[in-house]
Amino acid sequence: MAKKPQTEGSEDEAGEGEAGGSKKKKLIIIGGAAAAVLLIGGGAAFFLLGGSKEPAAEAVMAVQEEQPHAYYFDLPVMILNLSTADERPTFVKLEVALEVSDQKMLDVIKPNLPRVLDAFQTYMRELRASDLQGSAGLYRLKEELQRRVNIAVYPARVDDVLFKNVIVQ
């Protein structure tokens, strides 16, 4: 069980075999990567450039038809004084628009406008300037005003209260 002595020729053949094998592996890896790049690029080009424009235009038209139209009712500008701990007056100037989904809702809101303005003003006069600070304060104000206007114009429904201008002085 002794080892056979290697001849010089057998070392050269073994070295060439290993070097040839690593070259083949590199070539296979590079070829596979190139094929993957071509497939991904071709797929991207197909999705971005392929197909006709008509189905996309039809889809846009279908979405526009499904979306409800919104109607807006502008309330008059309100300037209100806010509640303060000290005797220094603090005012807020508020411009609001009401968003409704149907033209008929506007016809219900118009005769109830004094009730809506009363609900807004009685609530706003109890607020402090600190209640209106930041986006969270304005969001809470928006939600509360929407709740109050929906109570005032029931059975109509206001979808959203939109602030056009809010100035606290």
Description of the molecule:
With 169 residues, this protein is an alpha+beta fold. It folds into two domains: 8-65; 71-168, 2-Layer Sandwich (Tetrahydropterin Synthase, Chain A), CATH 3.30.479.30. 55% of the residues lie in helices and 17% in strands. It has five helices and four strands, in the order ααβββαααβ. The chain has helices spanning 8-49, 54-66, 103-109, 113-124, 134-152; strands spanning 71-74, 78-82, 90-100, 160-168. Strands 1, 2, 3 and 4 form a four-stranded antiparallel beta sheet that branches. Helix 4 (113-124) runs antiparallel to helix 5 (134-152). The chain is elongated and about 110 Å long.
Q: How would you describe this structure in keywords?
A:
single chain, 169 residues, alpha+beta, 2 domains, four-stranded antiparallel sheet, 5 helices, 4 strands, elongated
Short description:
This protein is α+β, with helices and mostly antiparallel strands and 169 residues long. It is built from 5 helices and 4 strands.
* Total strand segments: 4
**Secondary structural class:** alpha+beta
Helix content: 55-70%
Computed Rg: 37 Å
Shape: elongated
* CATH topological fold name of the largest domain: Tetrahydropterin Synthase, Chain A
**Overall domain count:** 2
Top CATH class of the largest domain: Alpha Beta
How are helices and strands ordered from N to C? HHEEEHHHE
CATH superfamily of the largest domain: Band 7 domain
Distance between the termini: 103 Å
Biggest sheet, open or closed, and with what strands and sense?
Answer: 4 strands, antiparallel
Number of helices: 5
CATH architectural category of the largest domain: 2-Layer Sandwich
Q: How would you state the average pLDDT, rounded?
A: 82
Beta-strand share of residues: 15-25%
Poorly predicted ranges (pLDDT <50, ≥5 residues)? none
